[in-house]
Amino acid sequence: MFFNIISPMAVTDAELTASNIPEDDYPEWDGVTTFAASVKVISSVTHRVYEAVQPGNLNNDPTSDDGTWWLDLRATNRWSAFDQRRSNKASRADQITYSITPTQDCDAISLFGLTAGTVRIEVWDGATSIYDETFEMADTGHVVSMYTYLFGGIVYAPQKVLNGFPGYIGHVIEVTISAIGATAEVGHIVLGRNHLLGEIMNLPRISHVSHSRKGYDDFGEEILVKRGSTRKVELDLVVPTIQAPRVMDIIVEIDGLATAFYASGDAPTYGIEGLGFVDDHSQPIDVAGESTFPLVLKTLK
To answer: In sequence order, which residues have a C-beta less than 8 Å from that of residue 106 and are 6 or more positions away?
Structure first.
């Protein structure tokens, strides 16, 4: 079983060339309208939603405001799939489409926070289709008996990882997320270069981390405040010592970025797949030939 990281490519206006999600969440900010408190606007420059925090808000640009006049709420619906957050989802009835033109070589894609029956990935070299695959998102791992097969309902996988497709500079990658008859959703999309870091030693540790808290109401009664959960992944990688600088360079490259990671190979890969960041990595060097590198990752909600 091998550990892989996708070094994420920045997706800006240069890369995101089309989508069927219009950027019309709220009116565009302008400098001649006086906005009342709680009014929301968008900026098609930053692709973010802002909320006025006080009345008489005239000619205060939210993209440069220090919080006096505007509160930066989130990415617009169209751009929510590229804001380094999984919980703020892009959504549209029936189907979401994105057209992305890589400005760097891109051979891997991961989609997280999905609500979809199918995901289709197409790659175009000019007018020629050079890759076209559609993936059914039904998760058969939840079928544990004949009863659940017949009556358990369909459970859909919330994420999809794919590598090895020809996403070279100048190609167009078409992503289609379909939930016909419902609302299609995606929390975050990572595109970039796939890196195999090393072989995973036995007994990787997957931890459930709850962010819920116990609080108290006005009468002193205990209440639970639900805040979601994340996962912590702890594993040891076996890497040829000569490749230690390569591994560290990749870790440095993705530092502070929402990064896709996953395990590949024949062994069970449960839990070693997610959207997160490297929390800790050390390199005790064994000069004999192979070194064992501890790695700790934390997922994003």
So the answer is: 9, 167, 168, 173, 191, 192, 193
Q: What is the DSSP letter of 69?
A: S
The pLDDT value recorded for residue 155 is: 78
**DSSP states along 208-219:** EEE--EEEE-TT
Say how far apart CA 5 and CA 193 lie, in whole Å.
8
Q: Give the DSSP H/E element, type plus range, for residue 244.
A: helix 244-254
| Residues shown for the chain | 301
| Alpha carbons 292 and 283: distance in angstroms, whole number | 7
Q: What is the β-pairing status of strands 188-200 and 2-8? A: antiparallel
Beta bridge partners of 57: 35
**Cβ contacts of residue 120 below 8 Å, gap of 6+?**
132, 133, 134, 135, 174, 175, 176, 178
- Cα separation, 70 vs 13, in Å, equals 24
Are the C-beta atoms of 4 and 195 separated by less than 8 Å?
Answer: yes
Task: Check residue 151 and give its pLDDT.
Answer: 66
- Distance (Å, rounded) from C-alpha 127 to C-alpha 108? 22
Quick: pLDDT tens for 1-29: 999 999 999 999 999 999 999 999 999 99
